[in-house]
């Protein structure tokens, strides 16, 4: 029974809770002070709000990457930003420092408690959640499914999904009197991505491109239409210091529970079906057909690569989430950029025109279409689906710098001391398009920069990671599915550009903004939610 707050016992309970909260906060403050005493004194922007730090400022900014870049220009390549409740984050914008950070990730730098809880809430304790030896084991078990040989065999799946989109769009255009039609392309890119990962990963057709609407797809779409909530923002910002706040039942949190449940039901059904098949056919045969077969083998294995049933379920949900979110966002951004630059769209179409009667092979997509490759990587440079990496040091560390910098005491240093427990951030979006690394046209969509030896400036070449980008991060946690994502991106884009011309519904002055789903997404300004209506014209 709850005690009325006006009774002596109720007031006593409030006093006890308040006292415990004060003790906890004092403990955290002491920890923070001790960390700062062992971390190199760094300059940084002033604290606009003791409770929220710069969290709200970054969240509300139309371009957080530019904010990080401006701070780097003002305070140096490594600086400190105020975080919630008086805490702070150390931000790395130095290539050598970032290389050190990523190479020590999952052992020396691990996810914050906030991020761990968030990942567990969405997909469970899979490879995204795991750290250290557990992460190493899970990743090793999954690696064969993402080899070049495996992706080569899956490329036909990506083309098949793209041609399903073409058939649907042709049907819509056939039913209209004009030669073009306005279509909301983001939802179509969502659907082609989900259907592709279902068939390629699990031999399961979600059927969205054939008109089905499974609950998991409906739930995914709902994230793009959530209205900004002060409560959701506060729980996310304050969660860095108080992870328990992630349990507050916001609308976003309720959708996360629904998504977890719907993905879990699908994963459970697919796993049970594959277990029955593999029992009758042998694990090796079942494992040769899809990623799910590999997971079944890991579940049944007595080797060091064994996965628990919970881990297998988490991997499946992770792959569904990644397959839906990342590639669909990149495809949509790419179409937006090609609408801004019709001449670039035409140039890409000219390169692809050699495949008028057939689709390119995986080898051709990978090695023989330089402009397609350039357009894809320029999209990934400007619009990484994940904007930053934030981790916490597991031990005191010394981070080297590529060149000396001046710290808060006025001294020059070529290394930064980081204390155990210090939160460290790498701003991916900033590093991908900072003028200091990519030159004066860093903010522009210029695929041609990827076509010449001197197109990538020397400073940008200091950045490690895939093709000098941090889009897929780097080190032990470099994106396992990057080959899968690149092949799907190129295959789908090649079909669309060969068959349609794309333009903005409201003309070249159309404003594009970023809205939040599970990950940030593009949207035409004025639309409700993450919507990108484009005018599609069929090519003869």
Automatic annotation (TrEMBL):
Is Protease tagged as a keyword?
no
Q: Which Gene3D superfamilies match?
A: Cytochrome P450
> Where, if anywhere, are coiled coils annotated?
none
Q: Which pathway is recorded for this entry?
A: Secondary metabolite biosynthesis
* Name of a matching Pfam family: p450
GO MF: heme binding; iron ion binding; monooxygenase activity; oxidoreductase activity, acting on paired donors, with incorporation or reduction of molecular oxygen
Q: Which cofactor does it need?
A: heme
Enumerate the residues binding heme. 479
InterPro entries in the record: Cyt_P450, Cyt_P450_E_grp-I, Cyt_P450_sf, Cytochrome_P450_monoxygenase
This protein's UniProt keywords: Heme, Iron, Metal-binding, Monooxygenase, Oxidoreductase
Similarity comment: Belongs to the cytochrome P450 family.
Protein name, please? Cytochrome P450
């Amino acid at each position: 029974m709850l005690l009325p707050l006006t009774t002596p016992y109720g007031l006593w309970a409030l006093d006890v809770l308040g006292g415990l909260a004060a003790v906890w906060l004092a403990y955290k403050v002491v920890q923070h002070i001790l960390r700062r005493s062992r971390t190199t004194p760094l300059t940084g922007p002033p604290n606009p709000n003791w409770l929220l730090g710069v969290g709200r400022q970054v969240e509300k900014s139309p371009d957080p990457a530019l904010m990080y870049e401006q701070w780097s220009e003002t305070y140096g390549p490594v600086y400190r930003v105020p975080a919630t409740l008086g805490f702070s984050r150390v931000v790395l914008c130095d290539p050598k420092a970032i290389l050190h950070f990523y190479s020590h990730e999952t052992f020396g730098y691990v996810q914050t408690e906030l991020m761990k809880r968030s990942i567990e809430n969405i997909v469970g304790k899979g490879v995204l959640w795991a750290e250290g030896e557990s992460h190493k084991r899970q990743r090793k078990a999954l690696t064969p499914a993402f080899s070049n040989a495996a992706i080569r065999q899956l490329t036909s799946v990506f083309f098949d999904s793209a041609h399903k989109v073409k058939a649907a769009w042709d049907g819509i255009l056939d039913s209209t009197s004009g030669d073009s039609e306005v279509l909301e392309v983001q939802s179509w890119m969502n659907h082609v991505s989900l259907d592709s990962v279902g068939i390629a990963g699990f031999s399961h057709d979600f059927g969205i491109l054939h008109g089905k609407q499974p609950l998991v797809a409906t739930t995914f779409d709902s994230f793009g239409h959530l209205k900004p909530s002060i409560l959701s923002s506060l729980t996310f910002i304050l969660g860095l210091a108080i992870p328990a706040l992630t349990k507050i039942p916001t609308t976003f949190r309720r959708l996360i529970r629904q998504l977890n449940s719907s993905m879990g039901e699908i994963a459970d059904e697919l796993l049970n079906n594959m277990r029955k098949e593999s029992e009758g056919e042998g694990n090796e045969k079942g494992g040769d057909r899809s990623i799910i077969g590999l997971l079944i083998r890991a579940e049944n294995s007595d080797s060091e690569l064994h996965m628990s049933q919970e881990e297998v379920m988490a991997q499946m949900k992770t792959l569904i989430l990644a397959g839906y979110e990342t590639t669909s966002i990149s495809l949509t951004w790419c179409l937006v950029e090609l609408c801004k630059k019709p001449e670039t769209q035409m140039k890409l179409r000219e390169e692809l025109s050699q495949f008028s009667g057939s689709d390119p092979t995986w080898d051709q997509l990978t090695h023989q279409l330089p402009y397609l490759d350039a357009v894809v990587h320029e999209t990934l440079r400007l619009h990484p689906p994940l904007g930053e990496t934030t981790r916490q040091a597991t031990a005191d560390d010394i981070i080297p710098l590529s060149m000396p910098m001046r710290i808060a005491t006025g001294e020059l240093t070529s290394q930064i001391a980081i204390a155990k427990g210090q939160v460290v951030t790498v701003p991916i979006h900033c590093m991908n398009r900072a003028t200091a690394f990519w030159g004066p046209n860093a903010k522009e969509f210029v695929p041609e920069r990827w076509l010449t030896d001197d197109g990538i400036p020397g400073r940008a070449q200091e950045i490690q990671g895939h093709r000098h980008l941090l889009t897929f991060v780097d080190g032990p946690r470099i994106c396992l599915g990057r080959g899968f994502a690149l092949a799907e991106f190129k295959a789908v884009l090649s079909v669309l550009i060969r068959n349609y011309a794309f333009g903005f519904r409201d003309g070249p002055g159309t404003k594009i903004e970023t809205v939040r789903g599970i990950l940030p997404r593009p949207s035409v300004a004025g639309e409700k939610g993450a919507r990108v209506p484009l005018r599609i014209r069929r090519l003869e």
